[in-house]
Amino acid sequence: MKLLRFIVVLAVIGYAGWLAWPFISPMLEGAGPDVAASRMGAEADAGGDLFGFLPVWTLWIGAVGLYLVAALMLGAGNSKAAVAYFLGFIADAVLRLALDQGGGDVAARSGGPTTMAAPEAVSGLPVDPVWLVLGALFLLGVLVVVAGRRIRRKREAGQLNF
Q: If pLDDT is split at 50, 70 and 90, which confidence band does 55 have?
């Protein structure tokens, strides 16, 4: 069970790092925080405001932060890590689905064409890749729940708690 927890913690940290990469990469290249903020701002501003009042970057940073908190809690053996993970998942899902509605913004940021083609034409899959990613993240959340559960052992009277 500890090995599963370790693997799930690494997967969550890896995904959070991948999600935060547009902000982290300029800093690793030696650029200052202002360059990193401007690059992140350019990518986040491509989505505009969600619901008219919520900037895209708030969900982006919130999802990354909650994924990292969930990984730290799971690594420490806290059974409430699933709550933090699924809050991050909700922020990530809202972000992905809102940017997917914009269509052209997502494709333009990824270097693709400015209009979204049908999902079948882009990936060769009959399902939109956004839904596949969200499904994989949900399954990772189920693994967080499983790895975060503690096995209750019945102890006899006088047995030490190790």
A: confident
Length of the chain: 162
pLDDT in tens, 129-142: 888 899 999 999 99
Query: In this structure, are residues 86 and 139 in contact, taking their beta carbons and an 8 Å threshold?
Result: no
Cα distance between residue 151 and residue 154, in whole Å: 10
Query: Cα–Cα–Cα angle for 62, 32, 42, nearest 5°?
Result: 55
Inform me whether the pLDDT recorded for 27 exceeds 60: yes
Sequence letter at residue 125:
L
Q: Which residue, among 58, 59, 66, 55, has the nearest Cα to 16 in the 3D structure?
A: 66
Do 132 and 125 meet the contact criterion of CB atoms below 8 Å apart?
yes
* Other residues' Cβ atoms within 10 Å of the Cβ of residue 80: 11
| Rounded Cα gap, residues 64 and 71, in angstroms | 11
pTM for this model (two decimals): 0.72
Dihedral sign (CA 97, 102, 106, 112): positive
Per-residue pLDDT at 109: 40
Phi and psi of 50, rounded to 5°? -90, 135
Residues 29, 20: Cα–Cα separation, whole Å: 15
Amino acid code (one letter) for 93: A
